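(Deposited chain)
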Amino acid sequence: MNAKHEALKSIEEQIEMCRLCGLCEGRTNTVPGTGSFDSEIMFIGEGPGKDEDLQGKPFVGAAGKFLTVLIESIGLSRNDVFITNVVKCRPPGNRDPEQIEVNTCWRYLEAQISLIKPKLIVTLGRHSMQRFLPGLRISEAHGKAKRIKGIWSEKQVIFPMYHPAAALYNPALRQVMLADMTKIPVLLKKIEI
């Protein structure tokens, strides 16, 4: 295991032991993230749900199945990308994460991004997008790459998408998300780090 992989495993251990906010009280498992530590793409959702809490892995429920379809639609597998969330423990009743919880967990996500150094960060849903692109509306920002002064790069690229769960409630979004996904391989070829 190289130094980067050791550092990422250390972050996972820190997350597992974390008791810095109230989310730790109701968790079954922490959900640090899964996938390739060498990925060019990082998918970031808002927080684990019930299935994720039980399994300790992100996006394993119905929304996760659709995320897998999206990833496979561009010729990749879940093992080729890194998938995580803004908060690493399940908010009670699947409520939105509170700002204090997001702020507390930010150290872990920031460390993961700094070590993995993805060319492209795909935010899934408005809560994830707001952390990187405050003030934007997901309905207007989805499918449009934005360059920001990033965590590890002066020109980090953020690509907002709807959360896969949104397509479960609004089937019309399924095609929108598939269309947004087709832009990712083109973006990756254009991004210079």
DSSP finds nine helices and six strands in the chain.
